[in-house]
Amino acid sequence: MLDRRQFVKTSLAASLLPAAFASLGTATPRFSANADAAETPRAERRRPLVLHQADLFHEHGDPDDHFDLATIYSLALQNLVDLRGLILDYPPSRRKGDPAVAAVAQMNRMSRQVVPYAVGSKAQIERRGDKAPNLSPDDSVAVDFIISTLERAEAPVRISIVGSATDVAIASSRRPELFRDKCAGVYLNAGAARENPDMPGKLEFNVELNPRAYATMFDLPCPLYWYPCWTVVETRQTGENGTFYWLPHDKAFEGISDALAGFFAYMFEKTQSSLWLKAIEKRPSDEVWTKILSSRRGMWSTASLLALADKTILRDGAVVDRTPEVDASPEALYRMENIRVSCADDGRTTWAFCDEPTGRQMFRVLDVPAYPDALAKAVNSLFRAFK
Asked: What pLDDT does 359 receive?
């Protein structure tokens, strides 16, 4: 007879319900394509098609984006997602580096993938729903790439945002019917659940990049899965409605391959060498690696990236298929819940949980004390996929 933990980890795996479709059902006609997908037996389902957008730079602004890149490539390497492309933010003035195309090349090499990328627009859209008709050809590349990827996709595409929402906002404003029919959901890792009374007017960084683009995400004609970075703006501790956690490097990197260690050392050292391939063909020196292992990293996007692959994390750190039964079990670490939400042009949200499907869901931690260590274990298991 199976105990409760075995039941969660094994017996429920066959009843996988994609995270992008889990609770929308057929209540809203515009999401009917998702309901059809929910009826498809797991063995017949395609890998989820994914576009990933990130503020990924070299020299890095925040190393978490390289951790996120390794996470999503791990999912692709394990055939859990079909990674169709990357959107790399155009660097804002506060960032020193350029888009980290060498990091993409390194990941393609280590994961044996051929994933294309496009550099995003530097434009600030003037209003929510702005089609930005005057974008230059150079500034339109990422928008065109998003649109063409959705047009060509043989199934609805899941879009992950862990930086600026600019290019997705423009693409969705230009082709709302395409997002309605061909976008399985936008996984938005940005914003905050609550304002900080000690920092009046302060916005989360990704929202600051383009508030009206962020606001446009809440008008999308497709499902939106909102993963606020903070429970309370700029409060660097785990909370009920924020994805933030501290990740000790020694836990994340325990037992990883020499190549992946080289990838992270290349980034952390902010090297100006163009020898990105040689960097992943040898292990970093003991001096460099010991220094890296002694630090920790603020992290946000792990849960949203796993959701792209219909995965979730249990309280003991195990990565398992996400199903309604797992979400409802005592082992669940977090889940997505239905909300009613609106977002003002300045990027400030008003929301409340609700019972009925609305096409909008929000992240909720069920065991705050267990969350950081569980995610650290999950990240390490993902990183160990690189051989």
From this structure: 98
Q: Are 286 and 348 in contact (CB under 8 A)?
A: no
- Integer Cα distance of 213 and 168 in angstroms: 8
Give the integer Cα–Cα distance in Å for 68 and 170.
24
Report, as an integer, the average pLDDT of 354-368.
98
| pLDDT confidence of residue 169 | 97
188 contacts 226 by C-beta, under 8 angstroms: yes
Phi-psi region of 268 (alpha: psi -120 to 50; beta: other; left: phi over 0): alpha
Q: Mind listing the pLDDT tens digit for each residue in 65-76?
A: 999 999 999 999
Do 17 and 324 meet the contact criterion of CB atoms below 8 Å apart? yes
pLDDT at position 45, please?
60
DSSP E strands, the chain: 49-54, 57-58, 82-88, 98-99, 117-119, 157-161, 183-188, 192-194, 224-226, 230-232, 245-248, 296-299, 311-313, 319-321, 334-343, 349-353, 360-365
Specify which residues 226 forms β-bridges with. 188, 362
Peptide bond preceding 59 in cis form (omega within 30 of 0): yes
Residue type, 195: E
Tokens standing for residue 127 = 């209003």
Q: Confidence band (pLDDT; 50, 70, 90) for 95?
A: confident
pTM value is: 0.88
- What tens digit of pLDDT does each residue of 251-284 get? 999 999 999 999 999 999 999 999 999 999 999 9
Cα–Cα distance for residue pair 103/274, rounded to 1 Å: 11
Under 8 Å between Cβ of 151 and 137:
no
pLDDT tens-digit readout, 132-183? 999 999 999 999 999 999 999 999 999 999 999 999 999 999 999 999 999 9
For residue 79, pLDDT over 60 is answered with yes
Between CA 12 and CA 3 the distance in angstroms is 13
Torsion on CA atoms 141, 82, 321, 178, rounded to nearest 10: 50
Spatial distance between the Cα atoms of 128 and 155, rounded to a whole number of angstroms: 27
User: Comparing C-alpha atoms, which of 178, 194, 278, 180 is closest to residue 231?
Assistant: 194
Distance from C-alpha of 54 to C-alpha of 170, rounded to nearest angstrom: 16
All structural domains of the chain, each given as residue ranges with its CATH number in brackets, are: 46-310+337-383 (3.90.245.10)
